[in-house]
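hey
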């Protein structure tokens, strides 16, 4: 998982008082090593969870041979070997972090980021241009927060590492609209946070901050491309074959590591699909499942059937309600930001069990969002044709069809665009708005 931390143009008095105190807040993210580098204008620290190149050649923060670039990086780059091709650079090891650093020295920051295939949160200091660069992967998998105050900048993997910094700790100011948004959604929407002057790097965003002009610049990069038909409900053999081939390649890329890799397995569809492709690429892959003593919530029986059908070594651990309560404090202590999704608790439990033997786990998280698996998402898709007409006409037509007994969601009448409807479906009590609108 790893944890990055850095500050720019901060008075040295803070560094003398113990610069590692704040990086220690993310020590659980990287228990294998902690290291820091202090320059004239910057301080970088890193908590390492070693995945590729377990030697000191993969240690971070990492500096280029000419000391121009200093890098901290959390994540995994699946095409990092391709990044090295054609570079005039003397490599010390095979870590993907060194591949990024080498590319920075030749191609610069923005071109390097556009070439990355993986999940990442990156902080890099260009000593020649006196510029700090930040970037986050196009899907926003790896977190990255930053704060600006009095011409200084702090960035970190965890929200609390920024607001606990002396630059912010004594002057924290809550933002009511952001707090309201958090209570509605259960998480802080990027690029904002609940505190003034503290932000999130958005998914697929590059940020630069120059000490020369004190200007912060933000740019987006995109790796998405659309192929095939625009009709979302059309499914062809060709599309299925393309998906199967692409999915298999992605899983194989994610199994590359110098440490043991395993999979999480539930009773649904997403994680068994991941497990099936992982098994095909790695015959000895291990699957982990946790169960609870509530029959309606427990998925171990289905998970066992999947594991048996796939021929997986399967580790199952049952938890009682009292055991779940016993780990709550430890679970929330490791949360560096407000987060209201209760699914984080079973993820935490299964991760604790798996971590005894494995450092890397593959899961099916995000599958429902990517493939519109939730019923509320499918409803939006099935009603998408309504948005081809103006809202006034749409409301009249929908009302008429409802009087005729045809079921039409009120979402098409309330929201100007489908994205507003989708956002409302993520809010914990979506019925409130409809009740206010229609009584």
């Amino acid at each position: 998982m790893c944890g990055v931390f850095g500050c720019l143009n901060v008075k040295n008095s803070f560094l003398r008082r113990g610069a590692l105190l704040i990086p220690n807040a993310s020590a659980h993210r990287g228990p294998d090593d902690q290291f820091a580098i202090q320059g004239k204008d910057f301080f970088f620290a890193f908590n390492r969870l070693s995945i590729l190149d377990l030697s000191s050649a993969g240690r971070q923060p990492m500096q280029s041979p000419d000391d121009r670039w200093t890098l901290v990086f959390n994540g995994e780059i699946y095409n990092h070997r391709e990044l090295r091709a054609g570079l005039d650079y003397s490599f010390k090891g095979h870590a993907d972090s060194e591949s990024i650093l080498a590319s920075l020295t030749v191609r610069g920051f923005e071109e390097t980021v556009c070439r990355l295939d993986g999940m990442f949160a990156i902080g890099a200091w260009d000593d020649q241009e006196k510029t700090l660069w930040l970037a986050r992967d196009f899907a926003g998998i790896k977190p990255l927060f930053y704060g600006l105050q009095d011409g200084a900048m702090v960035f970190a993997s965890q929200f609390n590492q920024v607001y606990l910094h002396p630059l912010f700790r004594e002057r924290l100011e809550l933002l009511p609209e952001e707090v309201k948004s958090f209570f509605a959604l259960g998480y802080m929407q990027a690029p904002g946070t609940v505190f003034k002057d503290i932000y999130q790097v958005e998914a697929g965003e590059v940020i630069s901050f120059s000490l020369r002009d004190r200007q912060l610049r933000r740019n987006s990069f995109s790796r998405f491309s659309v192929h095939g038909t625009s009709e979302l409900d059309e499914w062809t053999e060709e599309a299925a074959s393309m998906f199967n081939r692409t999915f298999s390649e992605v899983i194989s890329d994610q199994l590359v590591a110098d440490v043991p890799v395993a999979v999480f397995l539930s009773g649904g569809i997403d994680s068994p699909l991941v497990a099936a492709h992982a098994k095909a690429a790695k015959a000895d892959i291990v699957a982990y499942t946790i169960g609870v003593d509530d029959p309606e919530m427990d998925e171990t029986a289905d998970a066992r059937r999947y594991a048996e059908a796939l021929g997986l070594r399967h580790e199952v651990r049952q938890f009682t309600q009292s055991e779940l309560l016993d780990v709550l404090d430890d679970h929330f202590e490791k949360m560096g930001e407000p987060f209201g999704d209760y699914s984080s608790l079973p993820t935490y439990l299964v991760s604790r069990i798996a971590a005894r033997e494995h450092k890397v786990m593959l899961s099916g998280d995000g599958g429902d969002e990517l493939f519109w698996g939730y019923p509320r998402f499918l409803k939006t898709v099935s009603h998408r044709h309504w948005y081809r007409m103006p809202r006034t006409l749409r409301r009249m037509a929908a009302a008429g069809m409802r009087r005729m007994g045809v079921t039409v969601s009120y979402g098409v009448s309330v929201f100007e665009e489908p994205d507003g409807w989708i956002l409302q479906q993520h809010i914990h009590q979506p019925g409130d708005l409809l009740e206010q609108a229609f009584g």
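The two ends are 48 Å apart (CA to CA). DSSP finds 19 helices and 16 strands in the chain.
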